[in-house]
Amino acid sequence: MIHQVPIKSLPQEWLWCETWCDDSSKKRAKTIDLCNNPMTKEPKLQAAVRIVPEWQDYDQEIKQLYSSVHYATDSVTEQQFHYLN
């Protein structure tokens, strides 16, 4: 199939990765691939915090949302349990 269908690479701005792209091109990046860098073996979440400054804010927001949904679900389940008994 690879001989019948031409394969094109995405422009660098559509798939920026620290392993093969320079820092100056990151400003124009439309997506950032948090790929594993074989040279550093840095964990992805640690790299995300370093590469994408707003990552910590997003991560904190998701954790708060998860906690509120989880708490609400536990409260409903607990109320249903008491109602049934």
3D architecture notes:
This protein is mainly α. Helices cover 45% and strands 5% of the residues. The chain folds into two domains: 9-52, no CATH class; 54-85. Strands 1-2 form a two-stranded parallel sheet.
Question: Which secondary structure elements does this structure contain, and how are they paired or packed?
Answer:
Elements: E1 16-17, E2 32-33, H1 44-51, H2 55-84
Parallel strand pairs: 1-2
Domain Glucosyltransferase 24 catalytic: 1-65
InterPro entries: Glyco_transf_24, UDP-g_GGtrans
Pfam family, one: Glyco_transf_24
Strand % is under 5%
Tell me, briefly, the overall form: extended
Mean pLDDT: 82
Helix/strand-derived category reads mainly alpha
Following the backbone from N to C, one meets helices and strands in this order, namely EEHH
Structure summary:
By secondary structure, the protein is mainly alpha-helical. It has two helices and two strands; from the N terminus they run ββαα.
Q: Which features does this protein show?
A:
2 helices; 2 domains; 2 strands; two-stranded parallel ribbon; 85 residues; mainly alpha; extended
